[in-house]
Records
---
Amino acid sequence: MHQVHINLPAYYLLQLVDTLSALGVDTENWLRDHHLQAAQFEEGSVELGLDQFRDLIEDALQRSQEPALGLLVGASLQAHTHGILGYAAMNSTHMRQGLELLERFISLRTDLVRIERHTHAGQLQVHFIEAADLGQARRHILQAIMLAIHNIIGLISMGSPLAAVVFPFAAGPEESLAQDLFACPVRYDQDWAGFIIHSDALERALPMADPAMFQEAARLCQREFDQRQQKAALSQKIMRLLLQKQGHFPSLTVMARLHHMSARTLHRRLLVEGTSYRAILDEVRQNLANEYLKTGKLTQQEIAYALGYNDSANFRRALRRWRLPSGSTESSS
């Protein structure tokens, strides 16, 4: 299977190292066991395989035995630690503008999640959608990322505009700390991860607003985003696009047209990267199937349809190949 890679700002990983050190973990030994060393984190960003990153975090949890590790790391990531993205957000004219900026450019800080905004019952929901299977570290990664974004929002609004924070997992021993750090009600066992924001806070003028500085910082964010897009591996671009399509997957020919090349050229370039369009699509479907199965709210037939399978038998064969459970998703009809 094609190996997914992620890019993280070195500062984020250094904050994790510092947090673990404060908890008494021998971080040199921890990093060495994962073929890493702190000197690598002095660069602007660090690229890790997704499997390597998950193993790194899961091992950190095992060594620290700290159920609030994600929250402790997230609490240390204040607005100024997010580079030009944090600076642009700090100069937003109003909350809606700041949220639009974060949704558009969060990939400059992490490609583990993406942000989507939805309106429900007159309130804005900010969804944090996992771009890959985060494994057993999911809880802590989501808590760290969401708290880091909360810290930006809290700073620019000079207070929390959040009506609630919601998580797609059960409450744990860190529940009280989460309540204190997010400074609003925290709900667990929900269908999604994210924030509910008071609608009257969206257009309110922000005290740190500087329209000219915002425009300049947003321009720099766009330039960095464009540069990253140009450098990103073609396979990674395709995977992100397929995750965005979710169920409406384009054919190889259409995907090639979207990237301004022929299907033959696309196929050849993916072979150079050690993969193929079919392999990438299969991995995306596996990741999405795993997420759908975790919710337990869709039948097998519904999941098959959502993943673009016209024949449910093909989907069942894929489940067996992926070694994913299928018994709880059978249609009741």
---
Amino acid sequence: MKIKNPVIAFFLILVFAALACNLPNPSNSVSPVNLPSATLPPPSPTPANLATATEVPSPTPELPTPTIEVPHSLIPSTDVKAGKLIVDVVSADTGPQKHAPYGDAYDINRLERPFLQDMTYVADMDIASFNLAYDEKFFYVSIELVGTNPNNQVGINYGVELDIEGDGFGDVLIVAYPPYKPNWSTDNVQVRRDTNRDTGGLSGEKSDAPLPGDGYDKVIFDGGRGPEDDPDLAWVRVNAGNKATVQFAFKRSLAGAKFMYGVFADGGIRDVEALDYVDRFTEEEAGSPVRSDPHYPLKALYGMDTVCREVFGFKGTNQEPQRCSMIK
């Protein structure tokens, strides 16, 4: 290539000369540059070194408490004929007006209080009748309620009281707690005894309040789960028939050949160690469900329906405390 312009040619010569001066000289030794060594990540754990690797334990999940299955060898009959019906006062007609018609007699431990503390009527606490039947192994006590839902959200305990000596003092209590099942079950059933004879206060019938006491203080059966429990001693089921909204079965050996018995529904205090409630609260403290009573409305003692006590296996004198024939 021929460059005609001498100025441009001269300029190019200067540029080439400067570049030639900066070219590396093969004879010069160049010191190597020391670069920092790269830090490599530690090797991933392998089966050989997993045992020595630091492990962070994961939290142990809490397992649900296992339900104890109680083995049974003797189950009550599913075909129970009703015994003699004992009819109780009901508040179905007057309940919506927030009062009982009558039937609440505090002085003889007869409570017609199927109401909440604000006098709301609860038909599932209102006992209409009860009866007793039996076969070779079991007694069956059935409670007919005005309502049809023993599993009412209020939470209602039902019970059978046995007065073995017929003196007004409860000796044995079979009590059931919700939730209830339509099939026979021992799961939510307890049997208790009064070991110091204080369920009836001083008199066995009348209110002796205010009187301290611990009621049915000893548990002798707790769903069959106790180490000394007879697993087949006491049972409960619900809605077994129109006269058996709640039905209990208990071994005949528990009650013996003669006794008095009654039933209750408790959706209020629900403390079997405070029975009899009429001996713990004065009538003024307890209040009344009867509108004409000076202590109306209900106060400390509410949500409770009891009945008179019927006899089994003996005639007696007809003067036994709390006996049904003595309804006033």
---
Amino acid sequence: MKSVISKINELSEKYRDYTAENLSKLIKIKSLSKDEKLVQMELKQQMEDAGFDEVKIDGLGNVIGRIGNGKKNLAIDGHMDTVDIGNIKNWDFNPLGGEIKNGFVHGRGSVDQKGGPASFVTSGKILKELGFDKDMTIYFVGSVMEEDCDGLCWKYIIEEDGIKPDFVISTEPTNLNIYRGHRGRMEMQVSFYGVSSHGSAPERGENAIYMASRVALEIEKLNEHLQYNEFLGKGSITISEIISGSPSLCAVSDFARIHLDRRLTWGETKESAVKEIEELIKDIKAEVKVLNYSEKAYTGLEYGMEKYYPTWKIPEDHKIVQTGVKAYQNLYQRNAKIDKWTFSTNGVTINGIYGIPTIGFGPGNEVLAHAPNEKVLIDDLVVASAFYAAFAYEMDEF
């Protein structure tokens, strides 16, 4: 095993420029959610060039590469869609330039999260070069639509493609730490129904905006009293949008709606979160509902799910966490930090819904996700490409 680990280290360094250049190519292709076709074709080509046993694109547009054909199934996931660029004036370089300079690859998606897939392409190349022949099937997944609806891609992979791995590594950015969970989230709308009257006599009506405003202040208070978990932290809630309607701008508003972003810590559920809001609106004409997502992928397929993304965490002593710990120790003779994400990932579906043991290990610092001047250390890409290959060998020990 020592000789294999040594060879993995050697090859990950050998392919340093290869990994950086592959990532640069991916960054140069703008790939917002539902518009990932061109970047998926590039990723597919990179997998094929690396010598993967099989590469295909499924009905939703996920690229799925395979190495091996054994009984034990490991999947390594990274989403290929990104958020938009935002205000270009906040960038010091071309966000779609993919510039390789001063030890970094620069651009939108370098951290969140094309750096992970670029690294696992190199991992696949390393495994093929080493003649990986364990009783294992490894799926390398470049997934779609995560920024729009995290986990939707894996709902499709599990329910429609019929691929349900035994273990999953998410390559979302972890700053090269091993992550074992994060808070869940959900999206709710609360609609308020008032009665319009002429604006000259507001006392004759019931103003839905006032109704919504009073509840909004109660939601602000609610945020301070949500549950806390020692590992995942505190639940939270915020209003991210408010809209209203009335017969005219000279009339009392008869409708208002607020959009809620609810982050769920351990022990909080969809049902408990809805009940909290129902308590706040029980004496007024209002209703709360959990939203649904249904959109067309770039393939033309319409697919969706409820916008409830469960909280998840893996025990620190679970074998998938400890396999990651061992792989990292063997590669670098030091301990990896075990932690959690602040944001949400495809893990909400992979583990939160389907219960598949999942960890995170990815290049880049999550503070740069969705931020201007996004860039990733090439050193991080090298470590990640070594880690995924080493993990596959270590996993065979279980």
